[in-house]
Amino acid sequence: MSSTLVCPEVGAAPGAGRLSTQAQARVRDVVIAQFGFIWRLLRHLGVPPSDVDDATQQAFLIASKKIDEIQEGRERSFLYGVAIRVAAKARQSQKHRFDRDAELAELVDTAKSPEELLDGARKRALFDGVLDAMDLDLRAVFVLHELERLTMSEIAQTLELPPGTVASRLRRAREVFRERVLRIDAQMKSRGGIL
To answer: If we measure between CA atoms, which residue out of 195, 54, 42, 67 comes closest to residue 125?
Structure first.
């Protein structure tokens, strides 16, 4: 995941010329405010690293086409729903091809030894595997709280869920995460490895 990723210019977006000046300004503001969040969310929802930029652009293109329909102050919730659908499509297409980009990107960093790179790649793969094993309802709440550091009330607002539902899903997601990690750890120990 890139921490130096910057927001692209919205003015060059396809179809931007058909929007009113006010709508263009609103799209630009939404992209500036939500770009990093949506990019990270898509990555944590299982979009391959090589496809995250395209998926993020797709989410914002959809939002720009519907900007007049999005209620003021509800942009993040709308983008969240779009991101869920975009991530689901990306994960489906990922099953049909082999993604070498993540492995190649790890090899580019010469500051780390090959052993450190391999260890980091294994840990990320294990973490992604644990997240992939979760139902999307649980995974979404877990990612938003544990990785994006949103509060429970922010998650409830973003997902348009009652706070109690968010709390129960987060509790269940943590249980699933813990159980899966313990299972992987036990498997590794039985093979003589360490998690």
So the answer is: 195
Domain span at 89: 7-98
Distance CA 21, CA 25 (A): 6
In this structure, the number of other CB atoms found within 10 A of the CB of residue 187 comes to 11
- Residue 59, both tokens: 């989410």
**Using one digit for the tens of pLDDT, what is the confidence trace for 141-150?**
999 999 888 9
Find where tokens 């944590």 sit: 44
Angle, vertex CA 73, rays to CA 142 and CA 164, nearest 5: 35
If one counts the domains in the chain, the total is 1
C-alpha 54/C-alpha 77 separation (Å) is 20
49 assigned to some structural domain: yes
Read off the pTM.
Answer: 0.64
Distances (CA, A) of 90 to 32, 41, 43, 50, 58: 23, 13, 10, 11, 11
